[in-house]
Amino acid sequence: MPRSRTTSLVTAALAVASAALAVVTTGPATAAAACENGYVALTYDDGPNPSTTQALLTALRNANARATFFNTGQRVQQNPALARAQVTAGHWVANHSWSHPHLTQLSAAQMNQELSQTQTAIAQATGVTPRLFRPPYGETNGTLQSVEAQLGLREIIWTVDSQDWNNASTAQIVAAANSLQPGGIILMHDAYQTTINAVPQIVANLAARGLCPGMISPSTGRAVAPDGNGGTDPGPASCTATYAETQRWGDRFNGQVTIRAGSAAITSWTSTVTLSGGQRVSTTWNGSPTWDSSGTVMTMRPNGNGALAPGASTSFGFTVMANGTWTAPAVTCRTP
Where is the CBM2 domain (predicted)? Predict the structure, then answer.
């Protein structure tokens, strides 16, 4: 082969290698530069929705964006596979009440049931126990915030309302997102094609401003950089609670709650058991219970060492006097 041809090939090969090296070494810096002005949170309420959730997940994937889904318990119970798909796709799932009522018009016990049932439904469907809660309509008060605290939930409202629920067009939704500031949160809904259509332009406009979609910090309630751990929420070690009826008689039944640690060890746990109707607990075992003023919400803590290794479990039980109501209690778990 002529020397000039050999030299040309070597030069070309070195150029290709150099270019490849440049891609590898500058990629992370470029990604960091893209988010140089911080993070915002894209949030979608009221799902999962059989008509829109999958299309919304596709739009977010194509835009390389992650979001927080504030799901209602009823819809999660009806569509558990869609809730799992949200987590599998790398998004965060959060609590938006069971039936989307005006919570401030309910009693503390009713509030607790709305939130705790949703915690259980999401945990059972996805394996993730939410740490964030958005009150329907953004309505809140001190009683609700006390219930949220008991369940280990951080209340999240929003800084920008997209107005998609108010028939906003795709262009109007995109324009609303343009007003997001670092740490901000935009309210959208998992229900409208206009909202899905807005995703690529929202993400492109954010990138042009040096902003990226991120997660909501359970500590501060502001948008921060994603944790990189898929759909799970970051922060202290977590636990889940699973209920099972173990025995039934004509007037009562026995229930068992299994407490399981997440991927990290926990030093203790607190579980709530919310009864329905005129139900009352007559006996408990393997735990130390306390009660709210209504007698319908039992808070159970370990009666000894509550530490659990990653993935390990323990259980406690109780007898419920049914008083004509055989609905299974709603259960939740949180770490102190």
Answer: 232-336
